[in-house]
Specification:
This protein is α/β, with parallel strands linked by helices. The protein contains twelve helices and 20 strands.
């Protein structure tokens, strides 16, 4: 039996009873002969509540101080979990991200992991302890300041530790039984996926599936760390995410033509109106966005009007970056030469993901027919080899997801998609 890294989300450790339930599961893994490293998120909605509190004190809290505040949530959970494990008769030691050797860059609130030096963790588990690590946080290599990794950062912490410790598997425990063909909160008949390839999971995560963070899956793929997504509220087998199907005894697992439908309502659309249709203009627009450290998603450029020689360029980005993007473009308006800007945050993105698209030419037609039959109007379209994404009105998203899910035969015969906890906030 080797080393296992387990990650428990906020809904799993939301209260004292949840923490004790998690402690029992960790101790069970230890009794089965594994060395165990557990990564924990903050309890319940603690992180959101701390952000709300910070914004009440200061409308624009400094990034460094916000990180200092937010890391308190995970430190509370890790200490309480270590206490609960000791109460069950097993030794446990808790570690902050910096103590665990999670080294990051210096970008506050969305730092990236540069390296992991888990010497203290390795020593602790070799001495027979269960190591409990605060997720979502690290320490800057340059400034030595505490940093946070952004939304879903505890998943990335867990996979990074699993890679550094050469773990057998990284188990991600959450409030659903695995990865489903759609969000169970929207599609009650969504099916649980037994196995999904890294590539498909990357597309689902990038398209809005919240069960795993995109960075976490990318890290796992890079170091070939199998991920097992499970619920901490049940003992059921979950979803394996890996490069090759995991042997599940007599159960033969194959790659599905369509893996699932993802949606995202956290994006906004910016349209740059009246851009001169000549070389270098698009580069100038996206250089301004890049310099503001804003990630963009979908891009569409209209055909220029023959009479004016002007075109419109639209792109999507996180709503939280909308104001910054508008300010960056306005600042560079003279150099770019556009007429005006339009901002729309009432949009949603629906994505169909599946490796089988490459060899099934009818998928695209069926996707658009399903949206048409549901009366959903499309504003933007983006594709890759294994994904089709469209932007619609935010009010149409849930109906569109259900329509596409049914059209591709993904509905389960029963309502098997159980959400055990969490507010979805």
């Amino acid at each position: 039996m080797g080393l296992v890294v387990q990650k428990y989300g906020g809904s799993s450790v939301a209260d004292a009873e949840g923490i004790k339930r998690v402690a029992k599961r960790i101790v069970e893994a230890k009794k089965n002969g594994h060395q165990v490293v557990a990564v924990v998120s903050a309890m319940g909605d603690t992180t959101d509540e701390l952000i709300d509190l910070a914004e009440q004190v200061s409308p624009m809290p400094a990034g460094r101080e916000l990180d200092m505040l937010l890391t308190a949530g995970e430190r509370i959970s890790m200490a309480l979990l270590a206490m609960a494990i000791k109460n069950l008769g097993h030794s446990a030691q808790s570690f902050t991200g910096s103590q665990a050797g999670v080294i990051t860059d210096s970008v506050h609130n969305k730092a990236r992991i540069i390296d992991v030096t888990p010497g203290r963790i390795r020593t602790s588990v070799d001495e027979g302890n269960i190591a409990i690590v605060a997720g979502f946080q690290g320490v800057s290599q340059d400034s030595k300041d505490i940093t946070t990794l952004g939304r879903g950062g505890s998943d990335t912490t867990a996979v990074a530790l699993a890679a550094a410790l050469d773990a057998e598997v990284c188990e991600i425990y959450t409030d659903v039984d695995g990865v489903f063909t759609a969000d169970p909160r929207v599609v009650k008949k969504a099916k649980k996926i037994d196995w999904i390839a890294f590539e498909d999971m990357l597309e689902l995560a990038a398209s809005g599936s919240k069960v795993l963070l995109h960075r976490c899956v990318e890290y796992a793929r890079r170091y070939n760390i199998p991920i097992h997504v499970r619920s901490s509220f049940s003992g059921l087998q979950g979803t394996w995410v890996s490069s090759e199907p995991i042997d599940q005894g007599d159960k033969h697992v194959e790659q599905a033509i369509i893996s699932g439908v993802a949606h995202d309502t956290s994006e906004a659309k910016v349209t740059v109106v009246g851009v001169p249709d000549k070389p270098g203009e698009a580069a100038a627009i996206f250089r301004a966005i890049s310099d503001a450290e804003i990630n963009i998603d979908m891009i569409v450029q209209n055909v220029s009007a023959a009479s004016t020689g002007l075109t419109d360029i639209s792109f999507t980005l996180p709503k939280s970056e909308g104001r910054k993007a508008i300010d960056a473009l306005e600042k560079n308006k003279g150099g770019i030469g556009f007429d005006s800007l339009r901002y729309d945050d009432q949009i949603g993105k629906i994505s169909l993901v599946g490796a089988g698209m490459k060899t099934n030419p009818g998928v695209t037609a069926d996707f658009f027919k399903a949206l048409s039959d549901a009366g959903v109007n499309i504003e933007l379209i983006s594709t890759s080899e294994i994904r089709i994404s469209v932007v619609t009105r935010a009010d149409d998203v849930n109906e569109a997801v259900r329509a596409v899910h049914s059209a591709f035969g993904l509905d389960s015969d029963s309502d098997e998609a159980v959400v055990y906890g969490g507010t979805g906030r």
